[in-house]
Design goal:
CATH superfamily: L,D-transpeptidase catalytic domain-like
Order of helices and strands: EEEEEEEEEHHEEEHE
CATH topology: L,D-transpeptidase catalytic domain-like
């Protein structure tokens, strides 16, 4: 797939669409941002595998423009565009991210969402999660990051979501908890494009067609 970096909507100029040349082509794509009173640190793209940096790629799958496709094994999330293209984001996959498969819709979204640990998380790591058992308000240290997209199926919330992260180093990896996580810069970008009711397809097998 040929690819070019894709600028954060409203934040990066057209020079972010230069042909890809490793990490150098992505400089300026992930600057320090102030959003909703919170400061998101800049990302050092030289320390990130370019496969997991936001870029436009050729798309030959069956999903229609406006759809989200999560390729769990390859740690990629696609937002399908018109004209045989898609925006590809790198993602990290938490334990819950391997438990959902197939089609759904984005039933609701949240900006700087509230988060609370599960009873199991508290039991496993009481020192870390016990103090926040009542939940955390949105903020830079919140595990859900800057935005969350909640997946519904058959009119019901699935407890599966696409969200930001307070641990950018986990993008591209399998992690112990959570669902599908993106860099905070990327979840802000995706959130700006995705309306309520947008279709999402989650793939769990490498043989499945993106």
């Amino acid at each position: 797939m040929a690819s070019v970096p894709f600028g954060l909507a409203g934040c990066v100029g057209d020079n972010s669409l230069a042909p890809s040349d490793g990490a150098a082509a992505f400089i300026g794509l992930y600057p320090e941002l102030t959003d909703g009173g919170h400061t998101i640190p800049a990302l050092d793209v030289s320390e990130i595998d370019p496969r997991f940096l936001r870029q436009v790629v050729a798309y030959r799958g069956s999903q229609k423009p406006g759809s989200i496709v999560v390729d769990t094994p390859r740690r990629h999330l696609y937002f399908v565009l018109a004209g045989g293209k898609a925006i590809r984001y790198g993602c990290g996959v938490g334990k819950a991210g391997f438990e959902f498969k197939g089609a759904g819709v984005i039933g609701r979204t949240a900006v700087w969402p509230h988060w609370a640990p599960t009873p199991n998380m508290i039991a496993v790591q009481p020192q870390r999660y016990g103090p926040v058992r009542g939940g955390m308000p949105g903020g830079i240290d919140n595990p859900l990051g800057a935005r969350a997209l909640y997946i519904h199926r058959d009119g019901q919330e699935t407890n599966y979501r696409v969200h930001g992260t307070d641990e950018p180093s986990t993008i591209g990896d399998a992690v112990s908890s959570g669902c599908i996580r993106l860099f905070n810069h990327d979840i802000i970008d995706l959130h700006s494009r995705v309306p309520r009711g947008a279709p999402i397809m989650v793939l769990q097998g490498r043989s499945e067609v993106v």
